[in-house]
Amino acid sequence: MTLTSRLIPMNNINIANDEKWMKRALELAKLAQASGEVPVGAVLVLEDTIIGEGWNQPISSHDPTAHAEILALRQGALSLKNYRLLNTTLYVTLEPCAMCAGAMIHARIKRLVFGAIDPKTGAAGSIMNILQDPKLNHRVQCTSGTLAETCGAVLKDFFLVRR
Predict the structure, then answer these.
(1) Is residue 37 flagged as an active site residue?
(2) CA-CA to 33 of 20 to 30 Å: which in 12, 61, 69, 85?
């Protein structure tokens, strides 16, 4: 059983649409990489419209919370003038960490789509699954592996150059 099939049934999911938004997230990841940040990008979508975008900026902003997901959520909340981001989908090139997963729960994100898994800090199924924890008051539907090879290659290449 794959991580994707364990997290969300594949019916009613538009894979082409997921790939379209993930490609935009990859473009944003390249902005992070160009500024020396870990190349992660995120796009927040509501009704087939981008309402928030972000890329990793903790180093340049001196802010440990400036992950791509958090920045996209902040922008989306400002766009909607609401901290609840109901019926939105967040596309991220890398599986979110515990901080970002917690923010998604609080924002009431409907769905997360991510590319590469993060076997060290992944909180959407790799080392823990905050987004599906039955003890919490909200669950986020998850789809993993969208353009996973491309997303993973961007990260792998970044760290090969840095080491």
Answers:
(1) no
(2) 85
